[in-house]
Amino acid sequence: MWHAERIFVCFACRLSCHKKCHSRVNYVCPKANNDQPTCSKFFGTDLANLLADDEVPALLNKLLNCVEVKALFVEGIYRKSGQMAVFKGIRKKIETIKEPEAINFDDIPIHVLTSLIKAFFRELSEPLIIPDLYENFVNISEIKETNERVRCLRAMMDMLPKGNKCVLDRLMYHLARVAHQESAICVQTLIEDKLHHLQETLSQIVELEGATEKELPPLAPVASSEDLSSDDVDNSGGVKNEVKNTKELQKQNKQESLRSQNSIEEYALDLSVPPVVALLHHACKSRPNKGKGMRRPSINFIRKLRNEVVNNA
């Protein structure tokens, strides 16, 4: 639903629909009865039918007084819902009895009473703030200056019907008394907890967005020994330590290179000794296959080749 648009609400089943979409709704109300109007005396009826001399309905005023007397220090007064079985029983009793104002609410659980109050305002045929002025109230809430916002709100309140204004004043007074005991009903704690989780989520989102947009800086060029002046070298202890470590590494590498040369010379070949020629059978496993027309060299050929190598040496 758009917050500034009017909606249509079914009197029987309380189905809500946007004014531009109601013509396409295929839902058939199971409680609709065109022959008989709704017989509810309190819930879902027109506010003008409950008002007497533009005063707050007696039953609504009695429910609000019971909550203010008994339950201003109850935790979760309007956040928690009452037992559904008890709620339906009291609601049916209110709608069927001739004088619902005579019902004794002292033994009824407080959360059932608050559920009755919420159901009354939720099921009104027309909201307290009429649709023609709803958009004006929304625009006034965006005014930053306090005095100007209060002045505009008072002007809008005077434009409401007298009955709506009377009931809205009583409701605001009741909610102000409830909010005055926020330390007992833990409303502030719940709000702060929700805001804390919301801030953590927003900070994580901002951090992820920054990480995706962040670019790595280019690598700084390494300064050579020619670029460093003598003053910079003398004044920088870190450069001295690096030079010292470099010299030690050079000495260590030089010693290791000498040792490696000695080890190579120890196992070097002596070319003064004549070579020994030997025939290796199956020198490797993956030797190539013999080609067609090739035959194995004879023993005489191998002896002759060996004698020639010895004579040449």
Automatic annotation (TrEMBL):
Primary localisation category: cytoplasm
Q: Where is the composition biased (Basic and acidic residues)?
A: 241-257
Q: Which UniProt keywords apply?
A: Cytoplasm
One GO BP on record is: intracellular signal transduction
Q: Where is this region: Disordered?
A: 220-259
Please give the SMART domains that the UniProt record associates with this protein.
Answer: RhoGAP
Presence of keyword Repeat? no
The record's InterPro entries line, in alphabetical order, gives: Myo9, Rho_GTPase_activation_prot, RhoGAP_dom
Does the record's keyword annotation contain Cytoplasm?
yes
Q: Where in the cell is it found?
A: Cytoplasm
Cellular component (GO) terms are: actin filament; cytoplasm
Instruction: Please list the residue ranges annotated as the Rho-GAP domain.
Output: 45-250
Per the database entry, which stretches of residues form a coiled coil?
none
Q: Provide any one GO MF term from the record.
A: actin filament binding
PROSITE patterns linked:
RHOGAP
Q: What name appears for this protein in its UniProt entry?
A: Rho-GAP domain-containing protein
**Could you read off the lineage of the organism from its UniProt record?**
Eukaryota, Metazoa, Ecdysozoa, Nematoda, Chromadorea
